Amino acid sequence: MCIxxxxxxxxxxxxxxxxxxxxxxxxxxxxxxxxxxxxxHGLTSVTMSKIAEETGIGRATLYKYFPDVEAILxxxxxxxxxxxxxxxxAVRDQAGDAGDRLKxxxxxxxxxxxxxxxxxxxxxxxxxxxxxxRAQQHLHELIQDLLIEAAxxxxxxxxxxxxxxxxxxxxxxxxxxxxxxxxAVRRLVAVILSGLHPRA
Length: 200
Hints:
The protein has 200 residues and is mostly helical. The chain has nine helices and no strands. It has two domains: 1-67, Arc Repressor Mutant, subunit A (Orthogonal Bundle), CATH 1.10.10; 69-200, Orthogonal Bundle (Tetracycline Repressor, domain 2). 78% of the residues lie in helices and 0% in strands. The longest helix is centred in the N-terminal third of the chain and has 40 residues, at 2-41. The relative contact order is 0.09.
């Protein structure tokens, strides 16, 4: 009797954790498969049936997770954006002083901008929506906070509001998407940083 009670108390938690892990795995596989199919064949060629087949799940199961292809891609992109923000926070936390942290974050973000696909049908679809607005705000605040820290120790200028400087940085970093090489991206970051130093 004691064993039966223990068994009943333990099983639901184990079952829930296993099912949740399974659901995450199915969602991740579905998102990765869909993004790959759209990149290869174009948005209009990708159907829910094709996604289910390539993912290895039934179509009815797929519809339990996502209503359509666009919803899958929106979730995929939101996951990508969250991952990028986490990477930038990790870069910030690993660098030395305030100036080093700012440089590291600007360079990491510039390289992300350089490496992501632009001008594609997929990019046009996913670069919109509330999650993009939230991510941009989070990124703006991250850079603004670093600018405030660096200005407080005299590394960077304080004659322009940090909010404005963060906007300037982000607009300038957008140019990384059209640069020919990573070397050019690093030069862009160097130019941005030179504009942030205090005026003599």
